[in-house]
Amino acid sequence: MPLNLINKHADVYVPDGTAMEEALGRTTHLCIGAHPDDIEINCYPAVSECFGKPDRWFTGITVTNGSGCAREGVYADYSDKQMAVVRRREQRKAAVLGEYSVQFQLDYASSELKNSASAIEDLSQILKSSQPEKVYLHNPADKHDTHVVVFMIGLAAIRSLPVEMRPRHTYAFEGWRNLDWLCDADKVGLDASLYPNLAAALTGLYDSQISGGKRYDLAIAGRRQANATFYDAHKADKSEALTWAIDLNPLVEEEHLSVEDFIGDLMDSFHQDVLQRIRKFL
Ligand SMILES: [Zn+2]
User: Fold this and answer.
1) 243 and 227 in contact (C-beta within 8 Å)?
2) Which of 3, 211, 224, 281 is a Cys-bridge partner for 192, taking CB atoms 3.0 to 4.6 Å apart?
């Protein structure tokens, strides 16, 4: 089925030039991120699981153009439009380095995403045409509004698919707020230790953001290492770098389960865990 994206300004890029239908068909892992760089900073385990593997292919979807970002240095005088061009180019570079199957940049403005039928339709078309085994979304406890709205429309797009077309595994990853607070039984550790050179290159290429005064490249490497080391006080580290994730399968499988109830239960478990430990020593 040929894609007919509603947003005609979307950028669709296949780094190795494979025909679109085939590039979508070979996709096994798919990430829906809000801004250019969210995939590489927050969803590296999915990229690395596919890198160099003939039978696994990663496709990235970046929903907004990120034109409202802070700017410094050589970018100080850039308009929003010029910034969007720079960020689109950076996201394409990442797709080349990470050997993605397809990189979509849907070019929506953050302000138009709430309940956006067009964005949900675009996402659902891509999901239908690719039917990946694993899908990765932002998490509903993130503190960035655009991350949360992109999570909501991503989930709506998955839920719009017939059950047999939905991903077998759906995960939510860290972002503006990590997931270390989840009880151990509620969190999934995604290995982020493969090819540390590639991980560094994929975050380091975002010069517009790093020069803008945010060392995301160093911060995310530190977070992944801290996640691995602070996981278990009594055992040697199993991995040198971990990304925490939430298993979203209950939300994908049970359409009547609300996002509020789902994340509320996880927050209640954390609440109880903290109180119970204190009560042991009263
Ligand atoms: Zn972001």
Assistant:
1) yes
2) 224
Of 180, 172, 173, 280, the closest CA to residue 225 belongs to: 180
The continuous run of DSSP H or E covering 15 comes out as none
Domains in the chain, CATH or no CATH each:
11-256 (3.40.50.10320)
pLDDT (tens digit, 9 = 90+) per residue, 78-96?
A: 999 999 999 999 999 999 9
Measure 67 CA to ligand 1 centroid, in angstroms. 12
Q: Please tell me the distance between residue 276's alpha carbon and the centre of ligand 1 in angstroms.
A: 35
For residue 234, the CA-to-ligand 1 centroid distance in Å is 34
* Residue among 8, 282, 12, 273 at smallest CA distance from 129: 12
Cα 164 to ligand 1 centre (Å): 30
Q: How far is the CA of 142 from the centre of ligand 1 (A)?
A: 10
Say whether pLDDT at 68 is over 90.
Answer: no
